[in-house]
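Entry 14. Structure prediction run on the chain below.
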Amino acid sequence: MYIGDLHIHSHYSRATSKDLTPEYLDLWARKKGIDIVGTGDFTHPAWRAELAEKLEPAEPGLYILKKERMIRHSCAAGSPQPRFVISGEISSIYKKNDKVRKVHSLILLPSLEDAEILSRRLEAIGNIHSDGRPILGLDCHDLLAITLDACPEAIYVPAHIWTPHFSLFGAFSGFDTIEECYEELTPQIHALETGLSSDPSMNRRLSALDSFHLISNSDAHSPAKLGREANLFDIPMSYDGLYGAIQRGEGLAGTIEFFPEEGKYHFDGHRKCHLCLSPSQARQYNGICPVCGKKLTTGVLHRIEQLADRQEDFILPGGRPYENLVPLPEVIAACMGSSSASVKVTRQYEHMLEELGNEFHILRSAGLDDISRIGGQLTAQGIRHLREGKVDWRPGYDGEYGTMKLFASSELDSVEGQLSFILDDNGNENLPSLISSIPDTASMPNPVESRLQEMSASRTASDGCAASAGQMVPSGQTAPDGLTAPVGHTGPNALENLNQGQRQAVESISPVTAVIAGPGTGKTRTLVSRLSYLIGERGVKPSEITAVTFTNKAAEELRQRIRCQLPGKRSLNQMQVGTFHSLCYRMLLSQGISLSLADEGQQQECAAQVTGQFSLPVSPGQFLSLVSLKKSGIGTISGPAVSSDGETEKKADLTEEAFSRYNELLASRNLMDFDDLLLKVLELLGSEQKLELRKQHFFYLLVDEFQDISPVQYRLIKAWNKGGKELFLIGDPDQSIYGFRGSQSNCFDLLCSDFKQACVLRLRPNYRSTPEILSAALPLISHNQGEPRELIPMMGHGSPVRVAAAESSLSEAIFIAKEIGHMVGGIDMLDAHTNSSAITDTPKSFSDIAILYRTNHQARLLEQCLRKEGIPYVVAGREDYLEETSVQGTICFFHAIASSLPDKEDSWSLTTSLCRRLLGPGHDFEALKGQFTKRVKRDKPWKVLEDWMKALNLTDSRAMDTFLCMSYFHKTMEDMLTTLTFGQGNDVTRSGQDSCPSSAVTLMTFHASKGLEFPTVFLYGLKQGLMPLKSGSGPVNTEEERRLLYVAMTRAKEELIITTSEAPSPFLSEIPPGTCRMEQARTPNQGGKQLSLFDFMD
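Output returned:
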């Protein structure tokens, strides 16, 4: 018979002992009497390397510590050397069926080679380097599928299945059935790990678990905790023997269990209020702490009762036996009245091991006379109680271990200081009522007494009573203004789900309809319903419709939503949906116009020639910005030169000659820049006589985000609409944030002056944000010119807007990272245990959270802090790494071979010349062309880039590493290049780690957040100089900066947290004090050592 503890951790896991090394695991397994021990943490590459160095193969599929590494100790001298089996635990945090799930999985593998294979697969999904127990935003169903695909002999076991915060059946983030989690792969699950707070008899109250084998392990975070729970195996010593026992039950003889009452989560309770409640008592209080009014932590016993279909005394016929034990140091401590970690208990423990043998032998089978002779009579009596099950407990709750009561007072007459272990004087061994742990309400302060009275009243009130005046409306329910929130389309008539203003907009037959739609007023829904109404109700052909969006992502969302509204309508593919530039590009191609778009590197090269030729006091990048403004219709090509430190230098006059020379250089290379696409189409439309181009798609033209168009785009709208039937524009002048590109907040006024017959409608009901968020944002934007802004909140009340002041930008970033950990219910069990008061009752998914900031440079500290906390994240928007020469050269090369430029000798020659300048002269680009051309349309871009970086010795380039992180979001290199060419705003996204996480926090600038929404939004770095942003390029456009902040604030649906440091932004004074809650952004080391950036370096 062998004893196995298969679920442990290494010193690479968070909150674990530094002694969790192969040497000490071997030593403590010998002390405990464990024959097979898991390695833990196989996903961590450094731990795998350490295992490979210190272990050697033993029986098939098992390993043993090398003899020269063994730690010799007298208290483990007689024990056989244990075997190691490769094991690890994966933490999955993801969203399924509209609920955040947090489930831990135990995986056993037959070899380190298999661990390497599976780890590579998981590395492509999430960060497995920062923690021995990695956090992946991966559905457990998919994790199981990947595991079995990588290693069919793997053993997959849902870990500690009842733990409230992180488990299969957890009360806060688990499932009600195994099938809900694993779906069609449920038959691949053969065993379940019970966890410390439950034992097999509790689990057998669920008939749905009858077919599963129950195993138990310690989940040890230090060597001394090995064997708290373990398994009894009657098997051949091999991995195949283990596989048969766990997967088929062959040789699984039973388990060794904690007393479940000792587990941290057996009962319900609230640790902060020192309140421990049985399930029935918790139900009396409706799951609310009667002391503080917060939600109780639901314990394992309560959760089992929720799902059980059998009585408590049910015994499964043929069920495997199990033993309840307590670690020997705890028994000794109970006898001595000391802590189990005290020096005298440790000495006695080691003395007993030296004289009697390993711990399991002493607890399970050593003679009581021998135990009495070596350890004393009281110790022998305590072990007798254990073997007979005569142990009384105050059960564990809300992260607190249960308290053991092993002796009656009559047995402790000769022992002092053991009151916490004594039963009552009558020797009563029954579980005492825990109602005594609830404070006496008669002696409570008034707030608590009032709270109890409110709870009592709520339990006796009729369920059908009317809401009292001023009662808050829960989020998502109907507000009392007779306005119904839009819901999903459930019938053939989508109009029935629109409010009055939306319906008017959708049904308008005016030649020009302009809809002013504030944030959260259902702008996209109105646009989709308009399209659906045109096609489905009015019979407009999709081929006659063009919808213009601001980003490619918005275009794709529009396509998907219209397909959902009009399923099965194949002609929808004939409808044009896209950005201004992508539509113009397609239009030119359809006319047979040969063109190649200049990438950034090619534009920079032409700009550098012009600035050098004319001795212009601007950089190539600044020159291109001014040229773009000229082409966008701003009308001027002069502007200030800006030095690297942001100070304004002398005025630079960019002559028509320089402007023309730049265009000549592009034309000589047969290239267009981005702005030329629009100008070329305008030129084409201006020369057209019979409007044939417009008749193809522009009878019905719809434009989203109208407030952000430039003058040239406005000209294009009017040109497209010439000869058309209906023009529909929707936007919000208060969200006009692209003045530097030529957009104007008075665009609707200009429209009305050009189209006197325009029908202007305004949408006011807001379905996105809570009243608290709107009451902070609307007064801010009302400081701009015009009437006070009005939005009608349709969502229920929520949390007040928080404004957290910190000492520095670093402190802000640390605060945000820690807050996110609390919001998701804790990144791991340590967070859940130690920060339970800060953790929310309804944890969020990582993807529910966004951090917004004014400039890209602010993201650096945030990224470091998120990586430090092991929080997965993505960064949306264009960043500086795209301007690095290595990246520009790479884009130039692949853009050329994707556009078939190698077939055009002159163009290819110019491309290779530019690549040599950007990437270095020592590369054979002809050979590289042959190596990569076929892979552009076929291979994953990250694979292509990895090989490219090796071929050009770019593996040490930080910019290329960042570029590689962008490639994870694209299917092919061609797809990635298209995004780089036409992508706007948040179209360009990169991962914050070496993978593409399925659930991650989003980082982006205020500008890039336009059009998006998140349940929780952090606004980072609102201080003077950044908001409003001051630079050397001229006076601050305060009104546009205020609009930008308004946009950022209204991305939040439920929770908005603003952080500031040093000198706060003056805009914060424009938010009414009563609409937000001021607080100090506390960081972990406040009051201790000075925080340093070096603490957060990778």
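The radius of gyration is 34 Å.
Filed with the rest of this week's runs.
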